[in-house]
Amino acid sequence: MKLLEPVGLLNNGTAMNKTELNKLKELAFKGLLDEKSKARLSQLLNSEELAQIEQDIALSKLLQKLPSYPVSSNFTARVMETIQTKGPEVVNIPFLRLLWQNLTGKLVPVSLLIVSIAIGYISYNEARKTKLAGSIIELERVAMLDGKNSGFSVEVFKDFDVIQKMNLAGSSSMVDLELLTALKNQ
Amino acid sequence: MASQNDPDYPLILKIKKGDSEVFAILVDKYKQPLMNMLVRIVHDPVEAEDLAQSAFIQAYRAINRFNFSSRFITWLFTIARNLALNELRRRSRHPADSLEQSVETEEKTFTQQYEDKKSPIPYEDIVKSELLYKVEEALARLPENQRTAITLFQQEDMSYEEIARVLGCSLSATKSIIHRGRETLKQALKPYLKSGEWREDSEAKKYSDN
Question: How far apart are alpha carbons B198 and A59 in whole angstroms?
Answer without folding.
Answer: 8
